[in-house]
Write a structure and sequence with these properties.
300 residues; mainly alpha
Amino acid sequence: MNTLLSRWFPSHERATAVGIAMGGFHLGNVVGLILTPLLMSSIGISGPFILFSSLGFLWLTTWSYRVTDDPIESNSVSKSELRLIQAGKSDSQVIKGKLPPLRLLLSKLPSWAIIFANITNNWGYFVLLSWMPVYFKTVFDIKLKQAAWFSALPWGTMAISGYIAGATSDYLIKSGYSITSARKIMQSIGFIGPGVALLCLNYARTPVVASIFLTVALSLSSFSQAGFLLNMQDIAPQYAGFLHGISNSAGTLAAIISTIGTGFFVQWLGSFQAFLTLTSCLYFTATVFWNIYATGERVF
């Protein structure tokens, strides 16, 4: 996705494009959280697997016939639109067949700023995605079906806030802000906001209040889409996809650790409070690291 965005959109439209694309990602979580308990209770445990695999095959068929690597190869792009895209691309084209220099990518602090941001984002994101139904059931004694609705609401708002973040970031750049400033502002909102909201979640006494704090946390976390997720194209336009793969591998490992770790912490301490506080501290630490070492200038 990162590679395609760098080829298909001019620089000043990429944040908005990411917001729209990731909106589908968040809406998919809403659908999954709502439909899974319903399908399991009516069809059985195989119900969700049948539905989601069918949707996957449908998407794959559409993707195979409609998507091209570059807009110049697409029959659906007019000449005027192609000129607009090419005129707004400040970076050079990807050199095909050249092996990305892994050692070089990992030798620069802006790369580590992206990796650390991805680790933090995935840590908090998948804790909330995996454990919030259990959280509502454990803390507020809500049945699993009802818990799914409380858990799904924040993901729906992420689709909207992600678009707002992207449009705001593009507006800042068009207004004269440097790319570095825009990326740091968006990422700071994307980490400080969820960190504060999770600390407040520790003091929620009703499921409605808890749902509000969760909605705020996840809505503001989507500002990261206009932060580290886009920053890969800024610092390494020729290797954006490869750098995304490296950082997301680290992020996925963090998601595994956090998802398992939540269970151990809750069982050990008897509450979610300690792990929510730990996650908040990670958000704040990553914000400081990001603002010191991240840049919107090309590094590679």
